[in-house]
Write a structure and sequence with these properties.
Largest sheet of chain A: none
Order of helices and strands of chain A: HHHHHHHH
Mean pLDDT of chain A: 84
Distance between the termini of chain A: 52 Å
Oligomer: homotrimer
Strand content of chain A: under 5%
Number of strands of chain A: 0
Structural class of chain A: mainly alpha
Low-confidence stretches of chain A: 202-218
Amino acid sequence: MYILIELIGIFFFAVAGSLMAARRGFDLLGSAFLGGVCGLGGGVVRDLILNQSPATFEHPVYFVPPVLAALCVYAFTPAVQKLHRLVQLFDAAGLGLFCITGTLKALENDFNPVTAVLLGVITSVGGGLMRDVISNVTPDLFNPRDIYALAAMVGAALTAVAWHLGVMNVPVGAGIAALAFAIRVASIRFSWSVPLAAGHWHRSHPATGSNDGPQRHY
Amino acid sequence: MYILIELIGIFFFAVAGSLMAARRGFDLLGSAFLGGVCGLGGGVVRDLILNQSPATFEHPVYFVPPVLAALCVYAFTPAVQKLHRLVQLFDAAGLGLFCITGTLKALENDFNPVTAVLLGVITSVGGGLMRDVISNVTPDLFNPRDIYALAAMVGAALTAVAWHLGVMNVPVGAGIAALAFAIRVASIRFSWSVPLAAGHWHRSHPATGSNDGPQRHY
Amino acid sequence: MYILIELIGIFFFAVAGSLMAARRGFDLLGSAFLGGVCGLGGGVVRDLILNQSPATFEHPVYFVPPVLAALCVYAFTPAVQKLHRLVQLFDAAGLGLFCITGTLKALENDFNPVTAVLLGVITSVGGGLMRDVISNVTPDLFNPRDIYALAAMVGAALTAVAWHLGVMNVPVGAGIAALAFAIRVASIRFSWSVPLAAGHWHRSHPATGSNDGPQRHY
């Protein structure tokens, strides 16, 4: 179950990465690389934090999904205006699966529940964060217009509870993944959002906030 | 002493991270996350380099400061035009404390003084660098208008000397931290600066330098 | 041979990093830091993935090349319009050497050939990727106008083959490095390129693609 869920989650994230590469006008190899970073990055960070040699680099099979993803995106390039939404959709699917695998792996390594949930969140948001950072765009993670980390946190918390109750199995996992995915997608569709970091500002602020950043320095 | 200094330093960096989140218009969870990255990132990198499981993920207490910081920034949002200065101020406070803890931890792990000082610098600039990179702004670390890494380097070097002389204790540490903090803040106030990477250019160059970057590629 | 090649490769990458610092208007310390990240980053990531304490931090000698590079760039600052080309040239030289050392180190650690080649590629593109990411520019790695990762991949693959045939020695290594370097440089000169991630788009797209990124979010 474990490896399979991981591979599927990696594929979803890899597609999100390759779609980002398409959106940013990168080439096919960059697409496979970005898909790999997006699909495998979160897990590698998790394993480094668990002080283990990343599983990713022990089974070459982990590198198949990113290559497949890059080829799929190359073959079926969607219309450019759809790209951002599609990145978010596949990203959400990966998010749902990774918040489970990340949390479980931490719990199996005897981490306390709090840390396990945080590692689950890191595993599930890490890949997408790296994708956005190395693509030089403001991370989706920080978009104040919808819910991202919260969806992963809910999924990770439910996973920790289910694991402690000893009721963690495929259907339960599938349900948790579906819930996290649903929260993320619904938040985009219905503009649910978390309050801004800056309590009382007007929502229109981010636009400027996001652009005056680099200029501010010089 | 050690843990306490770390927690205080983490809080200062976390506030800097959450203020950056406010400045960039991110949401409250993004604020806690960015505060966590800024406050804990440097230490995690240091521990990974020391090939240890990051202390951060063994004591959940390390995650309290970022949450507190995000709530403080949410509750007492400063005026937007003050944000950049405040980020720099709290960042400087964290810098002063982390250049000590980072260097000490490396020395206690039998690293040679040169490497220990470098690890101290990496620990103290790492969090702020990650904050700026994932916020998609040009890192403060590279701002040619003031002194950043040099302040951390002075603090780390003095720490290494004090440690080798066996006179490292709370007051000495406090003095070193205060000095590093003072150098950083004074350099911003009085525009002290290190020479540019490009020897003979006019100081007005950076403005263009910082903007033609991304465009250059395509 | 091994250490020497690494040091030379580190110097080339460090010069590329310091030139980028000059191009972006950073200061001298930022130049040494960026050179260090560019020259040592790939190797550190490789060692972390190999779950080893990074060699970089055990021999202070590794920090000499970045300091030298920063001083060279400071002393002989080229004309600004030449900077981007020079960054690419030194980057290509480092690429040629690192795709060999990275692959060999992975093979010596009993990694399977596929993973070893990938680690070689990661080692050789990692430093430049970090340089571009923390300089807040779109990574050269993703530039669709020339060949980057493919050159490293060819070098890494040939290294793996030579190692398995037991014919890996200095001249062979030099030949492989020269080939990878030549592919990279020729691709820039003659605009060889890999197909775009998005199959059927017009090559003029990237320009917009690279700029609408950040704005897209808010």
